[in-house]
Amino acid sequence: MLKFNDRGKFGILLFGDIHEKEDYATSPNFRDMQKLMNAALDKYKPELCVFLGDNFDTPLCKKNPEEFVKGLSALCEPVTGRGIPLAAIMGNHEHDPGIDREVLEAYNRIDGVIMRSDGVEGKADFKELVYSRDGKKALACLWFIDSGNVCVNRSVSHYDYVHTDQIKWFEEETEKLKKENGGVPLPSYIFQHIPVPEEYNLLRKAKLWELPVSVRGYNTLKRNRYVGANGVKGYVGEGPCSPDYNNGQFESWKKTGGVRAAFFGHDHLNDFSGYVDGIYLAQHKTGGFRAYTDGCKSCVRYVELDENAPGDFRDELKHFKEFGLKSESLGPVFRTISDRQSLFIHTAFRSAGVIAAVSAAAVTLKYAAERKKK
Ligand SMILES: [Fe+2]
Ligand SMILES: [Fe+2]
Prior knowledge:
binds fe (ii) ion, 7-stranded mixed sheet
């Protein structure tokens, strides 16, 4: 049973897109990730940890299930070894080898790890209630949603979306909880790998002079360039890779009421957050050192719920170097520079790319105009 602690708080520590690999036992990238995990666990002492998907390469589960469980245990050990429950959700890469049941079973072989399929057959959707410190009353509901892999019909969307039957399950369960709570929706928090398309509402189209610091939209939005909208905090490092098709999941959250916040993984660079129609959407970047990232900015997000103010929460980000940690896996430049410098270099490279593209387009247009004149 998940409960508020003696101080009336419920702390949740998020790790996004760790992408751990088979060679973990000898890898400096794995050691860096574990340093971050241990430092964050020591600092925050959370009541729950969440892995936001793309956790450990699943092709190993197909090749050698025993080795996969061993690797997964090593990845989870800093959390489970402290006796802290760990909820893990499936990211798109958990689905890659097409053996979802085996992957789920492997997660369930590790003491302290929570991953279930409570709703729609074949989807790892589940929920956990958070009880008052005396254990008598449910005060919040945490939803862990399986956002799938790539879409079966790529002409509809590149990445998959949360399906109608999953949304129906969420709405029915929400209604039951509402009845049990005297007709009032229970404050709810969503944890999901692929972000909803409404994340783009936290961005706005870049003005001409903002192009060098802007990001390109994803897939069907790739003609547009974006920057963070007013009031949005955090770093916009890439266009959110949400589905191209909107299946109404966010509208369902609005309709049912109770959803206070949703936390997403999938985009390794983004850590921006803000409110859309009263619901806090937080994009969480990678906590690992395996997949693409911008230098030393791998980080954790700490979310804290308050028993005395149901529905209220706060969150904060803390990066690898802010813990005073030293990297073994990063190259000499990213190992020594500060987070701010790392971000600047990343932006400078991106700006150089945009300037080069704009210059090339201008020269091409000029050349075409001259040829036409001739
Ligand atoms: Fe990922
Ligand atoms: Fe992903």
